[in-house]
Amino acid sequence: QVQLVESGGGLVQPGGSLRLSCTASGSIFSINSMGWYRQAPGKQRELVATITSGGSTNYADSVKGRFNISRDNAKKTVYLQMNSLKPEDTAVYYCNADMRRTSWNNFFNYWGQGTQVTVSS
Fold it and tell me: Is the dihedral of CA 16, 46, 5, 116 positive or negative?
């Protein structure tokens, strides 16, 4: 069973920082792109940042210069360092990854269960 598990969410004051982690587990041969998405109540899920297996990154305009995505391929883990947090960053953050179980399998898209990030005074 292939799973993604997020951690690191919590309550932080505006201007503060949090570091989210997401680790893939189970029988996994390879992981292609990984990313972070977020969803606030009443809003659609939106892309925050993505990173390819080769390290190329992409960020939403709203987080550029504040967030940084990275990955450790040996640990099958993707990170999201969030700095200068704003109240509008409040959302459930979801980890996403394209993974395959063997070299001959197709890549499939997986989602974590989400971790709550609340930015408030």
Answer: positive
Which residues does residue 2 pair with via DSSP β-bridges, in sequence order?
A: none
Half-sphere exposure of 30 (CA within 13 A, CB side): 11
Which residues, 6+ apart, have CB-to-CB distance to 117 below 8 Å? 9, 10, 12, 18, 20, 38, 82, 85, 89, 90, 91, 92, 93
Confidence (pLDDT) at 96:
97
Whole-number Å distance between alpha carbons of 51 and 35: 6
In three-state form (DSSP H/G/I as H, E/B as E, the rest C), the secondary structure along 4-15 is EEEECCEEECCC
- pLDDT value of position 1: 83
Residue 117 has pLDDT above 90, yes or no: yes
DSSP category for residue 44: -
Distance CA 110, CA 63 (A): 23
